[in-house]
Amino acid sequence: MSTTVSEHLVTRASLRAGRDVGASHFDRLEPLLARISKPIQYVGGEVNSVVKDWEDATVRWALMYPDAYEVGAPNQGVQILYEILNGREDVLAERTYAVWPDLEDLMREHGVPQFTVDGHRAVGDFDVLGLSFATELGYTNMLNALDLAGVPVHAADRLGDEPLVIAGGHAAFNPEPIADFLDAAVLGDGEEAVLLITGIINQWKREGRPGGREELLLRLARTGSIYVPRFYDVQYLPDGRIQRVAPNRSDVPWRVSKHTLMDLDEWSYPKAPLVPLAETVHERMSVEIFRGCTRGCRFCQAGMITRPVRERSITGVAEIVEGGLKATGFEEVGLLSLSSADHSEIADIARNLADRYEDSQTSLSLPSTRVDAFNVDLANELSRNGRRSGLTFAPEGGSERMRRVINKQVTEEDLIRTVTTAYAAGWRHVKLYFMCGLPTETDDDVLQIASMAKEVIKAGREASGRRDIKCTVSIGGFVPKPHTPFQWASQLDHESTDARLAKLKDAIRSDREYGKAIGLRYHDGKPGIVEGLLSRGDRRIARVIEQAWRAGARFDGWSEHFSFDRWMECAQSALSDDEVDVDWFTTRERDRTEVLPWEHLDSGLDIDWLWDDWQDALEEIAVDDCRWTPCFDCGVCDQMDTHIQVGPTGVTELPMPGIGVPSCATPLATTTQSVTRQDASKTNGG
Amino acid sequence: MGNRRPPDRDIAPVAQRVRIRYARRGRLRFSSHRDFQRALERGIRRAGLPIAFSAGFSPHPKISYANSAPTGAASEAEYAEIGLTAAWDPEAVRAALDSALPPGLDVVDAVEAHTSDFAQRLEASHWRIELVDVELPVAQAARDAFWAAGRIEVQRMAKSGLRTFDAREPVAQLQVEPDSQAPCVILKAVVRHVTVTVRPDDVLAALRRVADLEPPVPPRVTRLAQGPLDEATCTVGDPFALDRRG
Question: Minimal CA–CA distance to A438: which of A400, A490, A370?
């Protein structure tokens, strides 16, 4: 693999090799493709991909998911933004992904720039490079892409018409570690945000680009919902903590707030998702059945930053599925959300879709994580056509006490009852997901995972009368995340994580009765420390990221490319003049008075509520879900002027679509009734 | 899965088998056989063809493939056979599939199958190999050395490990032609399909072996035809001929 970054100056102009801005570089890339593995991922041409004329667009976006094509191409967020932007006549959007080291080496050797897979245009030619960070482990891939594009990696060095580098995605809720590399960051839902940015760029261009790049960024910052790091300064205390983060000019707001899309039914995307030719991690027609989650699991950043819950209606879901299957030919439908079985109409959705597509060999999948018997019924519905994958449940914590700390309200009896139902219904394999390294956790909490797994097998054998049943225990290392009640917590060091997992492994393996029926999957604790450093880091971490990238870090989410030692060496050298080190950012517990690096970024959550919830966690007090109990003042709805949108809509049956299924169920009377959402307070859509 | 039985389901029988010839062109020559399989299955669903499925726990669409060209090689003559539960006009099948597949995966011909043993009719392939920056006399000399040799052993990594085989005998014809876009010469090879398929790469390896022919640029390869071999004229015929008569 490539380990060094070329030292000679590569610019957008030199990479352009005399061709026009926006021209295709495919003829230069093509000879390289014969020499690398899996070239299909770089050629584009997927069904439903779009290539527009460069000159017809006034605002041009390059969208990047900073990982390999096989991971990035199915990403729902990027696909939605790609469709929304290309749906505008004067806007053009193309996609770019991280290139593997074999191609990177050849691109550097032959002067081929980072390119889009749609038009094979140079990324440096676009107005915007929008990156979606689902995880912090994509940061080095961003730097590599910028460098391959001939775009200066430091935002301060981008003085001309280089693309605006804008980050979004969950990791953008603390963009401070990459603030030096970004022109802007967007928090929250992207659908309206990309159009807002597009409109501002369009206007600024039409006016003849007054004030240059600085003025454009200022216009973005003044919206109050686009974070432009260069307009904010961070001051530090002598001990290394942050003193304050403040605007360095009077005309930008002190705090920047997240975007919240209200009424998902008005944003029926994706309509025509891409059908990759290359094999990718998810090959299915995915539809988000609701956004947000108020279960209140304290470790879960996604659940905290995407509030409130906004459901798509049963008819809205069905419409997207129907259109998407026609447009793609996919053989699987995925009903996505943070906890899909919580949709108020999930039973009707599953039954109707199963009815609709039973004859066309289309399967349904539902990442169901809640542990209750209802989910087994649902799973049976989804596996009607005979295909049964494993059932996955996520108790997350091994002991009852641990689950109270993390607010995952499920008892061992619930779990046993559920898996008993599943085994009795014919399932043979259940997967259980847990975390290790949670706040206040002891060895005993983790060892209880072993006893729970044994109980599961025991109950399963009794329920099914068979001995060939299996249970797989998967363990993820807990990484505290910004904007969660655990944002103040100490992360468990990797040595302790590994020692705890070793004890768990022994406890399972040494059991002669059940050991062989239980599979254990886990990773060592080292990658979690790097993720923790990048998650809760501040602007000083930029130096670490840059050094690690220059030393060869790429694809940090891939164990075969990740090097813990390289990251630690780079951290030590990059932070040598500071009061802080890796432990300070990761294993150190913060107190209430400390200014957190992301405090000027508003996720809607009230910091006092987060702190109180953290204290409740330490006292093992659980909190209910505000969908079914009164509001507990997390702050989001008040702060953002939003509200929960849940059904049921009253529609329980869907009309059969007119394709492929000539004789289906009797038409039902309810099919033509108009849909009235129960949330009568529905506003105009934010 | 023990006591679980495949769900009771009416599996519609195959009413018609349609054979298609498709091309893999331009940038989509980089698609692998598996990539094409997924693309075709989804194309069939988008086109709304009444595809037949196998029975059992995991029903699979009834499609069989013959002899696909290696990833990276373009082709004008790839073949597949699909089972339908209702009879369609083969031309309608061709047109529907062609418009459902992305440009570059082009369905160019279709016939209703009236015969069996289709795969065995694919006796030979006709390949076109573009050698850029290779002089005509150099290529001609290499061709002559190849032709004069009785046997040329080459090696290729297969799933089972490194295999050594003869790349000379299966080659029924090898011609060198100048290209209009000099400096470039065109090799045309007619290769019999034998147990270890000799691919264009193997022919190039053999040319390297006997004549040190080393093209500076990776050659562009296209399969022009597959079908029955007329040994007298060394021409590759139309494998659909018998079905068309059907």
Answer: A490
Q: Are A312 and A359 contacting, i.e. CB atoms less than 8 angstroms apart?
A: no
Q: Mind telling me how many Å the CA of A291 is from chain B's nearest CA? A: 29
Sign of the torsion formed by the C-alpha atoms of A432, A435, A439 and A442: positive
CB contact under 8 A, A386 and B7: yes
The vertex-A339 CA angle with A446 and A633, nearest 5°, equals 90
Nearest C-alpha of chain B: how many angstroms from A311?
29
State ipTM: 0.92
Residues of B with CB below 8 A from A40's CB? 28, 30-32, 35, 71
Q: How confident is the model at residue A686 (pLDDT cuts 50, 70, 90)?
A: very low
Q: How confident is the model at residue B182 (pLDDT cuts 50, 70, 90)?
A: low
From the CA of B12, how many Å to the nearest CA of chain A? 11
Q: At residue A677, does pLDDT exceed 60? A: no
Cβ contact, residue pair B27, A426, below 8 Å: no
Q: Answer yes or no: same fold for B16-113 and B122-236.
A: yes
User: What phi, psi does A489 have (nearest 5°)?
Assistant: -75, 160
Using only the alpha carbons of chain A, give its radius of gyration: 25
Domains, chain A, with CATH or none: 12-253 (3.40.50.280), 284-387+624-686 (3.30.750.210)
Look at residue A667 in the predicted model and tell me its pLDDT.
28
Of B2, B3, B32, the CB nearest to A40: B32
Q: Note whether A507 and A609 are within 8 A (CB).
A: no
Nearest in space to A473 (alpha carbons), one of A505, A500, A437, A442: A505
Topology of B16-113 in CATH?
Alpha-Beta Plaits (3.30.70)
pLDDT of residue A8: 52
B125 — phi, psi (to 5°)? -120, 150
Q: What is the residue-averaged pLDDT of chain A?
A: 90
**Predicted confidence (pLDDT) per residue in A347-378, tens digit:** 899 889 988 888 788 888 876 556 665 677 77
Cβ–Cβ gap B103/A39 under 8 Å: no
Is the pLDDT confidence value at A442 over 60?
A: yes
CB proximity B48 to A under 8 Å: yes
- Which residue in A304, A291, A368, A292 sits closest to A617, CA to CA? A304
Instruction: Tell if the CB–CB gap between B42 and A330 is shorter than 8 Å.
Output: yes
Contact residues on chain B for A331, CB-CB shorter than 8 A: 41-42, 45
Chain A and chain B share a number of CB contacts under 8 A equal to 92
The pLDDT of A45-73, averaged and rounded, is 97
Q: Which of A277, A283, A361, A664 to mutate to test the interface with B (most CBs of B within 10 A)?
A: A277
- Percent of chain B as helix, strand, coil, to the nearest 5: 25, 35, 40
What's the CATH code, domain B122-236?
3.30.70
Spatial contact of A389 and A432, defined as CB atoms under 8 Å apart? no
pLDDT tens, A553-571? 999 999 999 999 999 999 9
Inter-residue contact A156 to A91 (CB < 8 Å): no
Task: Identify the band that residue B196 occupies on the pLDDT scale cut at 50, 70 and 90.
Answer: confident
Helix axes A564-574, A526-535, angle to 10 degrees: 40
- Answer yes or no: are the C-beta atoms of B19 and B57 closer than 8 Å: no
| Portion 8-47 of B in contact with A at CB < 8 A | 9, 27-28, 30-32, 34-35, 38-39, 41-46
Residues whose CB falls within 8 Å of the CB of residue A355, separated by 6 or more in sequence, listed in order: A656, A664, A665
Domain boundaries, chain B: 16-113, 122-236
B114 part of contact set with chain A, CB < 8 Å? no
Alpha-helical runs (H) found in A492-576: 494-509, 526-535, 541-550, 564-574
CB contact under 8 A, B27 and A44: yes
d(CA A37, CA A306): 38
